[in-house]
Structure formats: structure tokens, C-alpha cells
Design brief:
The complex is a heterodimer of chains A (387) and B (457). By secondary structure, chain A is mainly alpha-helical. Chain A has two domains: 19-138, no CATH class; 184-368, no CATH class. In chain A, 57% of the residues lie in helices and 4% in strands. Chain A has helices at residues 18-40, 42-65, 76-86, 95-109, 122-133, 135-138, 154-162, 169-175, 185-194, 203-214, 218-223, 235-248, 254-269, 290-302, 306-313, 324-344, 351-360, 362-368, and strands at 143-146, 179-182, 272-274, 280-282. The longest helix of chain A is centred in the N-terminal third of the chain and has 24 residues, at 42-65. The radius of gyration of chain A is 23 Å and the shape is globular. The termini of chain A are far apart. With 457 residues, chain B is α/β, with parallel strands linked by helices. Chain B is 31% helix and 18% strand. Chain B has 14 helices and 17 strands. Classes of the chains: A mainly alpha (387), B alpha/beta (457). At the A-B interface, helix 1 of A face helix 7, strand 15, strand 16, helix 13 and helix 14 of B.
């Protein structure tokens, strides 16, 4: 008789594992990465690769220092690396992703005890840190934009785009024939609505002017044919990835749905500051401005960091609440903060800080939304009362 | 009425290998070693001396206290010695009686006689159940007469027979329901009479439609009995969850099923109650499932108490070289045996023999929330496991935090650990914390009694 194994029940487990979940998230992010390579060239892949490499090396290093098992195989550092890179334009200097990923892993994750113990989403901490440290790299006045026109040969198209040199944003237009540059759509929106023109006509006219005239076409913005950060341009592919994660059961559908829904509703109904310094406030401007006005909340959804944040960062298991009710509170809170920052704050973009703030509130949310323990809280039903 | 409960998981059921196999009756041949600890209450006290001849059904152990069970000779023969054996429930040593069968397998004169039990008063029924040594055969082995005696101030209006058999791999209750639906319903009648409950329910999981049909047909003429098919979900057969699913009532935290007006008994216990009341046959035999990938001839076996487990496993075709884990009971709540050198007891519902036991990496909690979704008790299992680690790490206030988080409401069903992608040993930590809590309470009692002693001096 061989020796028998003795262990606590249960003796069977479902087949998911931490590594399986993490690598599935990596897989879900891959389509957006491939499109970035197509739109912004090898530079986007190089920045992402460097970021991932830094994250993995830092994780291994920190775990060696902490004398804990090295778990770089579980894919969690890879996700952080990808997400840090996804938050920056392809034109950043090489040391920006390196610094961002190192800060994410070393400060935000390992200093707090590694996987499962961090309070804030590591990638967002990395983003916040490089945002203030390398403001010029992170907020270029213009992003490389590749306007893709239908071409006779799909393959030659792809190859051509992968070879675009976009090392310097300003030079991109000059060096590549079909690459031009422009500000990010969120900045266009914010700037357009804050221009003195907004005080002259009706809000509806202003929406038409900004959304139809200055901003990229909504469809282009949806699938990714716009300027922006590496991983944030294609709402479509980010959504496709998250559908996969929802089907696999690794993301709960209501979490991103509530975040996005909250942003769309609030962007439509909250008073919108128009003109310089928000001289004129209009309640429910989008709702009252006809079809073009209704485009406004949609731009909020598909542009900027919202999709990436709502689908992949606010759904980060470690830094979001445990119970379904808590996750709902968390998602709505993220949505509210995002809109408040975007409409009334100094930044055109509010996703990063809204999620970090809600991360901070997670222990409190967990405390408030503890499930009801079976057999408590209810009035004791009299025997025979039900059935 | 929603026939379900919160949480739960859907493990693969593994029942196909044995669900179609009627139990084989194993005659007592070799020496039987009968544990004196057959219930979760106090162990019985031996009533026989070495060398004494006994007949089947003759009492050989008497209950020590109310929460304890009587014990009877499983066959006729001679008491060889008073000995000890490995307890398949606790893993420790336990007192036992070794009985050499004489091969005649003769019933004691007072046993195996028909009895007109329907004329008996509820107290007499309860006494007869106690005298027959009945314990909960689902595996919990709580003395049946205790459950049939609701505390003062509670009124039981429903008896639920638990035929859910939600543990994967086990099929012995399934086969019993198919073979003896009428007897099981008689047993239900015994319980209803003992408790005065006007309503009886038999609850079966709907993955056993044949058993449900058999019981429904047998109950066709019974006005006060309902046979329910409940949706498959583990732990459907957990007492409180079953009550919730069937009646919509919740047993209050820390309370008994009687506080919700319900008594729950396993279908096998009901069958044993019928035997005890209608035929005066004490509990000396039970059916168990032997299965798993390390046995070549899995099946259900009706065995006498004290049957040697190695001989049973050999009969089932155990691959002694390949077996890596033997579980007493099912895979969700069963106990992994350190040795198969033991003997069957009343509470042994199955032996699951697995070749290569899965080793689960105990990784850090990634707060995915799967355990919160799975927990039928409404707890936050991940927190409890973290508190268990903290307590182990000498953060002693973690125990108080765990108590606040509902530690004692955990039913240890294992749904959380099943659902955990990080492979955390959640149930292990809960049991650890519960044991520490019991130690803490014992220390407090000790201190109080010392103080009182000091005061009275």
C-alpha cells in the first residue's frame, strides 16, 4: 500500500486557477495590443514589451528580496506591464514605461505584500506616477494618428502600417505619409466646449460644431482609428476581450456595465459647463440637444481611458470589493467620480483617479456590503407561517 | 415558492459508475470489529464480556447519556475481545468490540418480530428509535431520538426526509430510494408520529428522477406527504439549506431545525426507523458506496457494522499500488483516511478511492469573490481563511474578528474552497479557528470554576 494523502475537505476543486484567470486577461488584452501595433507601428509593441519585461523582472526581484516564492508565471505582473503601457502614447521615451512598471510592481504591489494584498490597482498607480513625473511624454499636444483608408491589398496595408516610424510625435506627420497627428478626443471635447464660441449659440449648435467638426468620427473612435494611448484607442476590441472574460466567468458583467452606464447617464444629465471657465452651465445639455447632443455621452464612453479602466482596471479582483453588492457600489462610484473629474475637474480624463479613489474605499464598501449571514437579520418565521 | 437556497456550487457528480448498481449484500464472515463510538455524541459503554455468546440484535453497548446511541451485535457469535481500532471519523483510536461470527447469523428472540407500532404513543416511538441505536446515516451520526425530541417551546410541523444525496460519487441513498420507497415512507410516518408533525416531505435532487418517481408513486395515497424534486445544487442536502429550499424558512443562527418547526432525517435513517419499529430490527447494517478511479469494481454494498474496510476494498478491486487517497464519505465533506486499516461504522456512507490525489496550491487570496458567491451560509470565506492564517501567525485577536464574521455559522460544506481559484485551504482554516475557539471557551470555563473555588474557600 502506498502512503495515503491526508488533507482537509473538499477533495475536489473546480479547474480554474489564479494563473488561468490572469493569462485569460492577458489574452483578452491581446487584440487591442495587435491593433495598436497596426495603428502606431512597432513602437507600440516595443513600449508594451519593455513595460512587461520591467514588470516581470521587478516582481521576481522583489520576491527574491522578500524571500517569498517567485510567482512570475502566474501572469499577474504581465497584466500590470501591459496595462501600464496601454495608458501611455506610443511616442513616450523608453524610460517612461520602465519607470511606470517598476513603480507599479515595486511600490504599489510588492511593498504592500504582493498579489492579493495591494490596495490600489498597480497599473493605475504606475500611470499616476508617470503622469506627474513625465507630463510631457504622457500628455503630448498631439498623438500620432493613422487614418486607415480601405486598401486594395489588406496584407500590404498591414505591413505598411507596422513599419511606420512614430518615434517622435511631432515628426510623425512628416516622416510617414499617412500618419498625421492630433490631440486626444477627450481633449478636443473639453477644449471645444470651453471655447468662447460655446457662449454664443445654443448647446445643440456647439455639440454639432465640436462633435461633427472637430472630434474624430464616432465610429472611428469606437473601433480605434483615432489618436490616443496605446491600449485605449479601440473600444471595440477592449469590449470583445471583456466579453470573453465574462463568458469565462472571470468578470461579472454588471461591474463594467454599471460603470459605463453611470458615466453615460451622468454625462447626459449633469449640468455641463460651457465657455471659458465654465461661464454657462446647462442642465442635461446633451439630452436637450437632439441627435448630436446624444453623441456627447457616447464620446465619453468610447474615448479616453474609460473603456480600458472600466473593463480591465475597475474589474481587477484584488482591488475591488468581494461581494456582488459591493462591486456594484464600487462600479457606480467609479462612474460618478469619472464624470465629476471629466466635466468639472482640471483634467480631460478622470478614469485613473476615480478608480484609485474607489480602490481606497474598498475596505469600507466591503464592511458595508457584507452578505447577510444565514439565519440572522430575518424575523424568525413562525412555524407553519410559510409554505 | 422558491425551492432553492443562496450560494452553492455544481461539482461534477461522479455518480455514473455506481448509480446503476443495486447493493450487494455482504454476509459477515471474518471477525467484526465494532466501534463503541458510532454517534457524534458520547461513545457507548460495552455491555458484554469476553467469551460471551451474542445473537444478532442483542445490545452490546449502552448509551452513555442522552446524546449517545445504543449498539447491537451485527450478527450472532462470540465476543473475542475488547480492543481498540482506528476511528474512521476522527482518525484517532477508539474502543471497540471484536466479534467472531458463528456463521448462523441468528436474530435475538426479541428482534425481527413484526410490531403494531401505529398504536404506540410518541414517547414510546422515540424510545423504540433510541433502543434500536439509530443515528443520522447521512454521515453526521447525530442520535436520531435526540432530533425527534424537540426542545421545550418548539413545535415541529414538518418532517423532511433528505434524499438529496448532494455529495458527488455517493449513490447508496439513491439505490435505497429505488429499492424501498414504501419502507422509507413508513419510516417518515414513524418520524411524523414521534414528533407530532402533520406534514412530511421527501426531498430528492432532480438528477435522480427514477428515485423521485418511485417515491411519488409510493406516496400517491398519502395525503400529508409530498415528494419534491429539487434542482441539483451542492449543498442541497445540508440541513439548513434543505429546510430553506423546502419550506422557505431559515433556521436562526445558532439554533436548531426545530426552531424553524422542522426535523430533517436522512432517507436511510427513515428506512432504519421502519425496520426498528415495524420489525424490531436494531441498526446493524447499512449500505455504502465504494467508488473512485482506484477501484476496478465499484459498487454499493450492504454491510454489517464492523466489517473490515481492507476486505471490502479488496472486494471492490482496489489497486493497492496506485491508490493515493481514501476518503470516508464524499469528496466535498468526507475525511481523508490516514490508513484503511479500520472497520465500517453506522455513519460510513462511502469510501472514495482516488489514484492521484490532486494537490492544491495554497496561493494568496486574489479577492475574486467566488467564495462569497458560493457560500450558502452568507459568510465571507476568504476573510475567514485570512484570519485563520493571521491567528496561526500569532495575531490572537484574529479569532475575535472571525467570531464577529460568523465563524460558528460555517457549515463546512466546502463550497468556498471548491470555488477558490487560488486553491486556498479555507475549510481547513475554519476548522482550525473553530477548534481554537473551543479551546478558548474551555479555558474561560476553567478560569471561572477556579475563581468560584477561590471565592467559596
Amino acid at each position: 500500500m502506498t502512503r495515503l494523502t491526508v488533507s482537509s475537505s473538499p477533495h475536489i476543486r473546480q479547474t480554474d486557477s489564479t494563473a488561468k484567470i490572469m493569462w485569460s486577461v492577458v489574452a483578452a488584452l491581446t487584440p487591442a495590443l495587435v491593433l495598436s501595433g497596426y495603428l502606431f507601428g512597432w513602437r507600440a509593441l516595443w513600449v508594451t514589451g519593455l513595460s512587461v519585461l520591467t514588470a516581470v523582472v521587478c516582481e521576481a526581484l522583489a520576491q527574491r528580496l522578500r524571500k517569498t516564492p517567485v510567482t512570475i508565471g502566474d501572469g499577474s505582473a504581465v497584466i500590470t506591464g501591459i496595462l501600464v503601457a496601454f495608458c501611455m502614447p506610443a511616442t513616450v521615451h523608453w524610460y517612461v514605461p520602465v519607470f511606470g512598471s517598476a513603480a507599479a510592481i515595486l511600490i504599489a504591489k510588492q511593498c504592500f505584500g504582493g498579489l492579493g494584498c495591494n490596495i490600489w490597482n498597480p497599473a493605475l498607480v504606475g500611470r499616476a506616477i508617470v503622469h506627474v513625473s513625465f507630463a510631457k511624454d504622457m500628455n503630448p499636444s498631439s498623438y500620432p494618428v493613422v487614418h486607415v483608408e480601405p486598401s486594395s491589398s489588406w496584407l500590404s496595408d498591414v505591413l505598411r502600417h507596422f513599419t511606420i516610424d512614430v518615434t517622435a510625435a511631432g515628426d510623425a506627420a512628416a516622416t510617414a505619409v499617412d500618419a498625421i497627428t492630433g490631440p486626444s478626443p477627450m481633449a478636443i471635447l473639453k477644449k471645444g466646449l470651453a471655447s468662447p464660441d460655446a457662449l454664443v449659440g445654443s448647446p445643440a449648435e456647439q455639440f454639432t460644431h465640436v462633435l461633427r467638426g472637430q472630434a474624430p468620427h464616432l465610429w472611428d473612435a469606437f473601433w480605434g482609428n483615432i489618436g490616443g494611448n496605446i491600449g485605449e484607442v479601440s473600444a471595440l476590441l477592449l469590449l470583445a476581450g471583456v466579453v470573453y472574460l465574462v463568458v469565462k466567468g472571470y468578470v461579472r458583467w454588471y461591474s463594467p456595465a454599471l460603470y459605463l452606464g453611470t458615466v453615460a447617464v451622468l454625462a447626459a444629465v449633469l449640468p455641463l459647463p460651457l465657455g471659458p471657465e465654465g461661464a454657462r452651465w446647462v442642465w442635461a445639455a446633451a439630452l436637450r440637444s437632439g441627435p448630436d447632443g446624444m453623441l456627447y455621452p457616447l464620446y465619453h464612453l468610447v474615448c479616453g481611458g474609460l473603456m480600458l479602466g472600466a473593463l480591465y482596471m475597475a474589474t481587477d479582483m484584488v482591488t475591488s470589493p468581494l461581494s456582488p453588492r459591493g462591486q456594484m457600489v464600487f462600479a457606480v462610484g467609479c462612474g460618478v467620480l469619472t464624470v465629476l473629474i471629466r466635466l468639472y475637474g482640471g483634467y480631460p480624463e478622470g478614469v485613473c483617479y476615480s478608480i484609485l479613489l474607489m480602490n481606497t474605499a474598498v475596505p469600507l464598501i466591503d464592511r458595508w456590503t457584507r452578505p447577510r449571514v444565514f439565519g440572522t437579520g430575518h424575523k424568525k418565521p413562525a412555524p407553519g407561517a410559510s409554505s | 415558492m422558491a425551492r432553492t437556497f443562496r450560494g452553492g456550487v455544481h461539482p461534477p457528480d461522479g455518480k455514473a459508475a455506481t448509480a446503476g448498481l443495486a447493493p450487494q449484500r455482504i454476509a459477515p464472515e471474518a471477525a467484526l470489529v465494532i466501534s463503541l463510538r458510532q454517534s457524534m455524541g458520547a461513545a457507548s459503554a460495552p455491555l458484554v464480556a469476553v467469551g460471551q455468546k451474542v445473537l444478532r440484535g442483542e445490545p452490546i453497548g449502552k448509551p452513555s447519556g442522552f446524546v449517545s446511541a445504543a449498539l447491537h451485535a451485527p450478527t450472532s457469535g462470540t465476543v473475542k475481545k475488547l480492543t481498540t481500532m482506528n476511528d474512521p471519523v476522527t482518525g484517532g483510536k477508539v474502543q471497540a468490540i471484536e466479534l467472531e461470527p458463528d456463521g448462523e447469523d441468528r436474530w435475538h428472540d426479541a428482534c425481527n418480530q413484526p410490531r403494531a407500532w401505529r398504536d404506540m404513543a410518541p414517547e414510546a416511538v422515540r424510545q423504540a428509535v433510541a433502543d434500536a441505536g439509530l443515528v443520522g446515516l447521512g454521515g453526521a451520526t447525530f442520535p436520531t431520538h435526540v432530533k425527534l425530541t424537540p426542545p421545550k417551546g418548539t413545535a415541529v410541523d414538518t418532517v423532511i426526509l433528505n434524499g438529496a444525496e448532494c455529495e458527488p460519487y455517493l449513490t447508496c441513498d439513491h439505490r435505497l430510494m429505488l429499492a424501498s420507497p414504501g419502507e422509507i415512507l413508513e419510516g417518515l410516518d414513524v418520524f411524523m408520529r414521534a414528533t407530532g408533525a402533520p406534514r412530511g416531505v421527501v426531498a430528492v435532487e432532480d438528477n435522480k428522477p427514477d428515485a423521485w418517481r418511485a417515491l411519488r408513486d409510493a406516496a400517491a395515497d398519502l395525503k400529508h406527504v409530498e415528494v419534491l424534486a429539487l434542482p441539483v445544487k451542492y449543498p442541497q442536502g445540508a440541513e439548513k439549506q434543505l429546510i430553506k429550499a423546502v419550506t422557505g424558512r431559515e433556521v436562526p443562527s445558532g439554533g436548531l431545525p426545530a426552531d424553524a418547526g422542522v426535523v430533517v432525517q436522512n432517507v436511510a435513517t427513515a428506512y432504519a426507523a421502519w425496520e426498528a419499529l415495524a420489525w424490531q430490527r436494531p441498526l446493524t447494517e447499512r449500505t455504502l458506496t465504494i467508488t473512485g478511479d482506484a477501484v476496478s469494481r465499484p459498487g454499493n454494498f450492504s454491510v454489517r457494522l464492523g466489517t473490515s474496510v481492507p476486505s471490502l476494498l479488496e472486494r471492490a478491486g482496489l489497486d493497492a499500488e496506485a491508490v493515493g487517497k481514501v476518503i470516508a464519505g464524499g469528496p466535498m465533506m468526507g475525511l481523508a483516511l490516514a490508513t484503511i486499516d479500520t472497520y465500517t461504522i453506522k455513519g460510513l456512507s462511502g469510501l472514495l478511492c482516488l489514484k492521484s490525489p490532486e494537490m492544491f496550491a495554497h496561493g494568496p487570496c486574489i479577492r475574486c469573490g467566488n467564495c462569497v458567491d458560493a457560500c450558502p451560509a452568507g459568510l465571507v470565506p476568504s476573510t475567514l481563511s485570512l484570519l485563520g492564517e493571521a491567528y496561526e501567525d500569532t495575531q490572537l485577536d484574529a479569532l475575535d474578528a472571525a467570531m464577529e464574521s460568523g465563524l460558528m455559522d460555517c457549515i463546512e460544506c466546502g463550497s468556498c474552497a471548491y470555488a477558490c481559484p487560488a486553491g486556498r485551504r479555507i475549510v481547513h482554516y475554519v476548522r482550525f479557528l473553530k477548534a481554537e475557539r473551543r479551546k478558548q471557551l474551555a479555558r474561560e470555563r476553567e478560569r471561572k470554576s477556579q475563581q468560584q473555588a477561590a471565592v467559596s474557600k
